[in-house]
Design brief:
Layout lengths: L9 E4 L2 E5 L10 E4 L2 H9 L6 H19 L6 H16 L6 H15 L7 H34 L4 E4 L14 H11 L4 E5 L6 H12 L5 E3 L4 H6 L5 E4 L3 E3 L4 E4 L2 H10 L4 E4 L5 E2 L16 H4 E2 L2 E2 L12 E4 L6 E4 L2 E3 L3 H11 L4
């Protein structure tokens, strides 16, 4: 069954990148026209686009825009490649936690390294656009596979709880955790879906509920603090979340609040799953302690819709992610199947057996 979403977060059209401004959702649907890599960096930093896979896709298109920007200034192919390598490092710094950004940029740079000085700069740019398009389309395929693998898990439960947004707004396809839920729902519409609000930026309230409604699916929005209550009352059959980086041992960084959901699920004997493509795994780090955690502006905590909600001048901490240790994770849903057991061995074996670019 080929599942599709009615939500389209970005389009590459006539050498421009059109991105749906997610900061305005669900109140307004507005696409921004990005024509420079600097605009792409700003869009990633300011969360015009967000979600680990989509950040990677956007970054790859940003490299294409950079090529188009500099092709007139650098008529020598070698000089253009050297300039683009500098741009690549700049784009990588836009957000530190999501590994897909680095993965996508490294793929583009790897393609450039195979080129020779005998090709024209335009051929070089065509190569970048081809790679960015491949990353975009490939992620859609991987989302479909994750949906199929994960749907069998959710269909064995009566209800599912998810956090943040992991749908089309976060990926190149139907989504990771959201895509699994969407696929399961298409097969079994009796599933009950809970979406947690996801403070401080309310991605669950603003974006996940938007995607469910756009796709004609009923869901129930709850505050983050209500999750434990529903688990204790046996109203949650399983929990499924996305990921921004997964260490070699299965420790997983995801939106802040995910760790406490995993602990609550463990306490209440509820299965807790992560859904993520293999591009989200970072085998260069041994465990979650090594995952860099982005801390964002305090205004995201102190303000909602531009209005102050606390005493002026209060001290604020705003980590954007937390790390869930592997012992709390029942399984990791990937395009290669559901990984479980000894994660160090299982993850290593998966990457040895699966051809992954």
């Amino acid at each position: 069954m080929n599942i599709t979403s009615k939500v389209k977060p970005l389009l590459w059209k006539e050498n421009q990148l059109l991105v749906l401004d997610q900061r305005l959702l669900p109140y307004e649907k507005k696409y921004l026209e990005l024509v420079s890599y600097k605009q792409v960096i700003n869009a990633i930093k300011e969360m015009v686009v967000r979600g680990a896979p989509l950040i990677g896709i956007t970054a790859a298109y940003g490299m294409a825009l950079a090529g188009l920007e500099f092709v007139k200034s650098y008529t020598n192919t070698v000089q253009l490649i050297n300039k683009l390598k500098l741009v690549a490092e700049e784009i990588k710094q836009s957000r530190p936690t999501a590994i897909n950004l680095k993965w996508a940029i490294d793929l583009v740079i790897s393609d450039l390294k195979t080129q020779t000085s005998t090709i024209t700069p335009q051929v070089l740019i065509d190569t970048i656009i081809k790679r960015a398009t491949w990353i975009h389309e490939d992620d859609a395929i991987r989302c479909q596979k994750m949906g199929e693998h994960g749907a069998t898990i959710i269909n064995s439960h009566s209800s599912v709880l998810t956090i943040c947004n992991t749908g089309a707004l976060a990926t190149g396809g139907i989504g990771t955790a959201f895509g699994v839920i969407l696929t399961a729902y298409k097969k079994n519409p009796t599933i009950k879906i809970f979406a947690s609000e996801t403070r401080p930026r309310q991605q669950g309230a603003r974006l996940t509920t938007f995607e469910f409604i756009e796709n004609g699916i009923e869901c129930t929005l709850i505050s983050d603090t209500a999750c434990g209550y529903l688990m204790q009352r046996n109203e949650v059959g399983c929990v499924i979340a996305g990921a921004d980086r997964i260490a070699a041992n299965g420790d997983t960084a995801n939106k802040i609040g995910t760790y406490q959901l995993a602990v609550l699920a463990k306490e209440n004997n509820i299965p807790f799953y992560i859904a993520a493509p293999l591009s989200t795994f970072d085998l260069s780090i041994k465990n979650g302690v090594e995952i860099p955690i982005e801390e964002r502006n305090e205004d995201e905590v102190t303000h909602i819709n531009g209005k102050l909600i606390c005493a002026n001048g209060v001290t604020v901490r705003n980590p954007a992610f937390d790390v869930t240790p592997n012992k709390y994770i029942t399984g990791i849903i990937t395009e290669a199947g559901v990984l479980s057991g000894n994660y160090i061995d299982v993850i290593k074996n998966t990457f040895n057996q699966v051809a992954f670019v």
